[in-house]
Fold this sequence. Notes:
Elements: H1 9-27, E1 33-35, H2 38-57, H3 62-71, H4 75-102, E2 111-113, H5 121-141, H6 145-164, H7 168-177, H8 182-203, H9 219-235, H10 239-248, H11 251-274, H12 287-316
Antiparallel strand pairs: 1-2
Amino acid sequence: IIIEPHLYTTSILNFGIIIGALAAALLAKQFQIRVAPSRELFKALIGGTLMGVGASLSFGCNIGGFFSAISALSMSGVTMMAGLIIGAFIGLKLLVWEITYLSHVSSNARKEISGNRKKNQPLLGAIILLIGISLAFVYDELDYSIRGGFLVFGLVIGIIMQRTRFCFVRAFREPFMTGDGDASKAVALAVIISVVGFSVLKWSDMKDWESSVFAGFWLGSLLGGIIFGIGMSLAGGCASGSLWRAGEGHIKLWVALVAFALSGSYFREWLDDSGWIMKLGKPLFIPDFIGWKMGILSICSLMLVWYLIVSWNEVSKKLVIV
């Protein structure tokens, strides 16, 4: 089934995130066209391609394949989390290797193009935000109210992410890079809150039990997580992080997003056509095996352990490899 991009909810959500981040950056006078060095653009190309492949294998990116899946008590979310940790570690190792052995190789300096018009950015940001909201009303007038809601939701997410600088890369990479665990702890707490919400919806039959339970356990989600983790480390942003950074004017992240979209589409098509999609794993809904109480408790306990480990690492720096 082919859905027009302007009617595909994921595309609308992503567009909203970019526009929301753009508006937020303009309102704060932080928008800047940033042209990265050629080596960084190459890393974005490779990283975006790997993210597309990884997301195809794990049936989702860091949001769908990990956050939503683990919140929905899908075992594939747990294995993708493990893969993301491994991938972020490998990706950071590659970056350290680059700095160690290739730092002497000349590369074009980063260019920033802004001009002297930052004083007009808040007005432009307000106009763009109003246009985004107006488009949501247009969807509503055309009887696409749900899609209009996705656009508004995307705008809000884009604004929040741009202002908070939140990105899943930090959650998985920073414990190994600087020892900082703020993002990791935030994600752990968010999963605990989300898993309770998902469980209530599923247990009360307000949401299908199989929702966000993907047939990727264990090979697809683990391998996909590793590949995605390496890719987001090289690109400098996860799926959502790349969107709001692109809205800020980072050309490197635009390259990563295009590579992500193309590689994900073509690789997923190959998986379907070749039949490999059926060999990536099985859907495993945790409560089917250990019950609701133990299922919720197991995921919350896992997040608590992650929280405690990164908190310990903030002090000890035992996991820092840089």
